[in-house]
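Example S7 (C-alpha cells).
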C-alpha cells in the first residue's frame, strides 16, 4: 500500500510542474510577441508608408496597403535629398571616429588592466566620470574652443567630441575583458622575449576581438544617429551628416509625405543592416569578460 501511495503521489507533482512550465512558456511567448510588435511594426509601417501616394496617406487608412507601390518616392528622396552626399559624410565621420576610439581605448584598457601601477584605478575612475558628462553641457565650451582654433564648420569639430564621448564606454568594456585574460599567457610571451607592444599586438588584440566588435557596433550606432553636434558645429551643406539630411529633407519637402517616409527608411537602413548582421557580436562581447572581473 505504501509503494502504491508513493507512485500515485508523483503524478500530481509532475502535472503541477508541467502546468507551471506551460504557463511560463505562454507568458514568455506573450512578452516576446509584444516586443516584436512594438519594435518591428513601426519599421514595417514606415516602409509601407514610404510606398504610398499623398492621397493614400491623407485618407487616414494607416493600416491599408498601397494600391500601387510608389518606388518613385525613393528615387525622389535620393535625388532631391542629396542622400549619397550625406551618406558619404556620415561614413567618413563614423569610420574615422571608430578607428580612433578602437586605437585609444584598446591602448588605455591594456595599460589599466595589464600593467601594475598605482594610478591604474584612478585613470579608470576618470574614464568612468567621463561617461557621466552629458553632451549638451559641453556645447558652449566646445564652440568657444573650436572657434578660437578656426575649426568650426569642419569634420574635425565633430570627430574630436565623438572620440571623447565614445572612448570611456569603450575603455569600460575592453578593460573588463582584458582583466579576464590569464596572466600566464603574458608570462610565457615574456619568457620567449616578447616586448610590451608585441604582447599587445600579437596576443591581447586577437583575443579581444569580441569586445572590440561590440565597441565598433555601439560606436557606429551612437555616431550615426547623432544630430546635436553635427547641427551645431557644421553649417555647410556639403559637410552635413545623414541625420541632419533627414531633418533638412523633412523641412524642405513637407508636402511630399511619401518621399519623406522613403528618406526616413533610407536613413535608418544602414543602422538596421549593421545591427541585424552583427547583433550576436554585441552579446558575445558584452559577456566575454563576465567570468572574471
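Recovered sequence:
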Amino acid at each position: 500500500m505504501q509503494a502504491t501511495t508513493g507512485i500515485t503521489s508523483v503524478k500530481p507533482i509532475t502535472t503541477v510542474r508541467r502546468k507551471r512550465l506551460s504557463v511560463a512558456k505562454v507568458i514568455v511567448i506573450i512578452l516576446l510577441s509584444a516586443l516584436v510588435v512594438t519594435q518591428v511594426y513601426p519599421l514595417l509601417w514606415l516602409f509601407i508608408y514610404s510606398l504610398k501616394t499623398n492621397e493614400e496617406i491623407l485618407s487616414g487608412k494607416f493600416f491599408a496597403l498601397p494600391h500601387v507601390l510608389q518606388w518613385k518616392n525613393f528615387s525622389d528622396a535620393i535625388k532631391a535629398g542629396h542622400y549619397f552626399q550625406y551618406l558619404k559624410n556620415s561614413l567618413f565621420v563614423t569610420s574615422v571616429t571608430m578607428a580612433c576610439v578602437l586605437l585609444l581605448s584598446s591602448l588605455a584598457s591594456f595599460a589599466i588592466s595589464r600593467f601594475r601601477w598605482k594610478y591604474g584605478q584612478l585613470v579608470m575612475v576618470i574614464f568612468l566620470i567621463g561617461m557621466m558628462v552629458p553632451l549638451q553641457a559641453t556645447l558652449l565650451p566646445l564652440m568657444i574652443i573650436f572657434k578660437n582654433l578656426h575649426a568650426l564648420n569642419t569634420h574635425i569639430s565633430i570627430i574630436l567630441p565623438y572620440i571623447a564621448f565614445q572612448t570611456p564606454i569603450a575603455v569600460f568594456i575592453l578593460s573588463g575583458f582584458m582583466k579576464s585574460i590569464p596572466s600566464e599567457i603574458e608570462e610565457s610571451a615574456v619568457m620567449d622575449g616578447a616586448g610590451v607592444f608585441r604582447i599587445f599586438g600579437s596576443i591581447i588584440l586577437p583575443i579581444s576581438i569580441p569586445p572590440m566588435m561590440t565597441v565598433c557596433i555601439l560606436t557606429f550606432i551612437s555616431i550615426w544617429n547623432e544630430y546635436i553636434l553635427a547641427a551645431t558645429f557644421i553649417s555647410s551643406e556639403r559637410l552635413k551628416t545623414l541625420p541632419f539630411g533627414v531633418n533638412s529633407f523633412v523641412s524642405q519637402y513637407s508636402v511630399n509625405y511619401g518621399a519623406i517616409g522613403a528618406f526616413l527608411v533610407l536613413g535608418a537602413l544602414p543602422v538596421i543592416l549593421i545591427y541585424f548582421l552583427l547583433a550576436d557580436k554585441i552579446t558575445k562581447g558584452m559577456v566575454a569578460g563576465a567570468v572574471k572581473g
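Notes on this example. Residues 1-10, 289-293 have pLDDT under 50 and may be disordered.
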